[in-house]
Amino acid sequence: MSTPESSQPSLVQPSRDGDVLILTINNPPVNAFSPGVPEGLKAGLDAAAADDSVKAVVIIGGGRTFVAGADIRTFDMPREQAPDLRGTIQKLDAFTKPTVAAIHGTALGGGLELAMACTYRVAVPGAQVGLPEVKLGVLPGAGGTQRLPRVVGAAKALDMMLSGNPIRATEASQLGLIDRLIDGDLLAGAVEFAREMADARPLPRISERSVPGATPDVFAAARQGIKKTHRGQLSPSLIVDLAEMAATVPFQEGWDAEATRFMEAKDSPQSRGLRHIFFAERESAKIPGITRDTPTTEIRSAGIIGAGTMGGGIAMNFLNVGIPVTIVETQQEALDRGLSVIRRNYENTARKGRMSMEDVEARMALLTPTLDMGDLKDADIIIEAVFENMDVKKDIFTKLDGIAKPGAILATNTSTLDVNEIASVTSRPESVIGLHFFSPANVMKLLEIVRAEKTSDTVLATSMALARKIKKVGVVVGVCDGFVGNRMVHRYGDEARKLVEEGARPQDVDASMNALGLPMGPFQMSDMAGLDIGYAIRQHQAKVAGKPKPDGWLDRIVETGRKGQKTQGGIYDYDETRRPIPNADMQKLIEDYRAEKGITPREITQEESTKRLAYSLVNEGAKILEEGIAQRAGDIDVIYIYGYGFPAYRGGPMQYASEQGLSSVVADLEKYGQTPAPLLKRLAEEGKTFAQYDAEKGRA
């Protein structure tokens, strides 16, 4: 191979191998389609067109990948300044010499669209290709909705575009999306392939094909499917419409429609919400005072105290990544029960074809059950996962202080209790941290990492690295009652109970949040978690505050013995599918409670219920933000999306509030009798959003 023709800095470097021009995209780290890339590609194509000695062109990515997609940061640029991906695609499609996309790493979004505009595509077997735009609330906007169905068929194209999930090059080859798999040197193989095809005419343009398998039933099934998988979302519906156009109208008409629909999706609040959370999740990994140079401890073994629902789920996270776990219980029966649940979970996964029985046995072999806490003496991290009782937790940490080896991390899975108080009973508070997993712990992605007053930087940095290793989204929070997520959800629950006291039915309150896009409303969530948990927290809070025993309508339901799904009945009854069914006796209990308290019920609209509940989260979030319990509003949004089911396309509660306008939020809070948090009121008066607050704080 020859050296590049120009030594000038450029995002696209041309070079020659005989009669083949090579255009190498060098825009690290992922060769995103940023300004400069289209200009470089167009210049290279123009040079190839003007040079009769060039018989074919190879486009390849430098570094670790082909093109991982568009640069999301350019989405908000004025159109005339944004990188011209569509123009580059058009130039490629009309090019009169063969072009070959040589793919390694990933060709995602605009990267795959670029590749599909080439005459041919070759790839290493391990490469991945896909159109993930739906995950950002947009759609393939540079021919993806029109070309992909023409190659892989209507059904597979819809599956790829609506899921947003990539496929391996090996599968893409079977579908005809990749023309040749290259086992050896990719560039050499691509040049050889280009030379083979140099004289082939006519050029096989994807834009000139028809769409295989494009029956009306395929598109009808897709529209029905997105009602469940993408309820309330705009871009999936537009994707189906455009894929159908690929099958029913000329390419140019579909191409033009795609541009219009892309802008419609991009400018929607849903896309802004999804793009917000995309960046917020990445920002949440940045911790003031923690750098790449902060030392970390390698976690090679873990200890878990408690083999119940939480302890077992936490253990599975470690087993899944090959970290041995010693799990401790106080009674053999509880230990056996916990192990059987872990095994059953794995076997259920194997029955669904997601792992083999050999994998099940390999993971179970990493698990050591014991009744002796002393067996945790060699663990690198020990996580306490017993019930929410401060005295019990302090007793455990007192014992751990004498058992755990020097340098071991001592973590509590508490969801509400004071981690500083727990740490105070040890001689090494710098080693203590809160790791709040969410139930079911083996499924939920969120991990609240609670930094106590004396937690060391090493322990914090190690915990963040561990979160990534066990495939969790770790968000650092400070110590307060309930931290971030549960502190907000307690306020949310208070408002939900008030709505019922004032006249709403529980199912109507839940429906108001379902309408916002949450899979469960507050009472459905309470029944799933267990009403007895909230009951115990309210009892504890009242005792600490020296207040009388709580006696709300929800407390009375618990006192009848109904604890939620675990007892087949709580606020609702449950059938074998765990579908919530309103219970007439519980409704009468609520009505009797109102009568006893002298409350005259009134009609409450869905709009009022939605605003009061959503804005109670926002208001508490603003207080948490101002207190420094959360570092950023974006962190709160990440917590609520990954831990509480807030719809990602809303961007989280704080982003949702910003979309509504913070002055409107403040006005509604005051209208419904809530006092706006000082930070919220100040931002509203200044006409700012929470994202602007985060940006200003980050620059300070």
From TrEMBL:
Domain annotation 3-hydroxyacyl-CoA dehydrogenase C-terminal: ranges: 482-574
Keyword annotations: Fatty acid metabolism, Isomerase, Lipid degradation, Lipid metabolism, Lyase, Multifunctional enzyme, NAD, Oxidoreductase, Peroxisome
Subcellular location: Peroxisome
Residues passing through the membrane, by range: none
Superkingdom of the source species: Bacteria
Domain 3-hydroxyacyl-CoA dehydrogenase NAD binding: 302-478
Pfam family, one: 3HCDH_N
UniProt main location, coarse: other
Subunit relationships: Monomer.
PANTHER family: 3-HYDROXYACYL-COA DEHYROGENASE, PEROXISOMAL BIFUNCTIONAL ENZYME
UniProt protein name: 3-hydroxyacyl-CoA dehydrogenase NAD-binding domain-containing protein
Organism, scientific name: Deinococcus depolymerans
